[in-house]
Please model this.
Amino acid sequence: MSLDSTLAAEYPAHIAEVSKRATVALERGGFDHLVIPSGVLRYQVFDDRDYAFAVNPNFKYWVPITNAPSSWIVFTPGSKPKLIFMQPHDYWHSVPQDPSGYWVDQFDIVIIREADEALKHLPSSGKLAILGEENSALGSFVPNNPAPVLDYLDYHRHSKTPYEITMMREATRIGVLGHLAAEKAFREGKSEFAIHLAYQEATQQEPFDLPYMNIIGLNENGAVLHYTNRARTAPPKLLSFLIDAGASFGGYASDITRTYSYVQDEFQAMVDAVDKAELELCAMVVPGVDYKEIHMATHMEMSQILNDFGVITCSPEAALAGRISNAFFPHGIGHPIGLQVHDVAGFHAADTGGRIERPVGQPYLRLTRELMENSVVTIEPGIYFIQMLLDEVRATDATKDVNWDRVAEFMPYGGIRIEDNVVARSSSAPLNLTREEFAKARS
Ligand code: GLY
Ligand code: MN
Ligand code: MN
Model:
């Protein structure tokens, strides 16, 4: 079946589910209508140049539209949702295309030419929950973002509909094309910037289409977790390559990391060990599992690898207790992903709110909940050689548990991260979108 026919088949159930969730969310807060502005363009200070438009994620939950500022969705329980679609008369810029495709039948659509025209199509009575940014306010329609409504919608957004998983699979397929082109460019000795261009070419995505800035680091730059400098020349000696880059499709994100050594050496062996451990961690992505457990298991797995390679001499338990594992693996094992690369409600205790705190000593974990049926999360273990963090270990008693000569040998390689996007399902093994799309692309 073509992608479009799959989406056409799956979208009605998606919109039914979103409507059902919105109905309960409104009941929770005692509201009559849900109103969602897409957002407005922002301009650079003292200038008429606009920033890239970033649509309200609550808007693209309903429709796969990411480029229509000053549009609105209105939902009243029991009625067909309404799209107020802004298509300005403008000969300076390209304007959003006429609404078309598999989703339009599910909406009453009105076209407006000026932002203010929305006023006559927004609800004229009743209590409104308006979800958006302050600057989307239009007349008396001022975003109020009621907590009971947002808590409910955000909490349940973890569980993706089949339509959303198809969207994310496509975002993954596109990202994988970029990754294959990027690895080829690395093997050809290209600079970070040239590798980035190869990625853009293969994915056919502009930088502002991407769900986040590409992270493309050669050698020691792989140790900078969110490295975006991109040197214009290649280093004289190529050792390693870390690429963390995703793609977008209809407002949904993929988030993929791979690491390569330039030759078959010990660093490649360590990459392979992290890759194997990553697959074991992906196997833990099951409904009902506490994601914090996957994070803590990662500390054990990464420390075991460090021990196997002679970088540390203590047990994984001692590495955790001495904060050594935090120095080599200084971020969370992952996060929810979907309409946003770092999706919402990672800490929610329930759909009525509340917060589940991070484990003590783990300040960067972004998800502390139990996984739901069809939660989509990233699994992204890593081992890095970061001078600043290793200096902190050196200053403690734990320094005795580190083989600093081995650290010095690995330091020029920067770091390792392997990241996949995985769906939790009770009826079968976890669905690893990233591995499946790499396998398809390589076959
Ligand atoms: N690419 C950002 C992250 O992995 O969370
Ligand atoms: Mn990433
Ligand atoms: Mn990630």
Summary: The first strand starts at residue 33 and ends at 37.
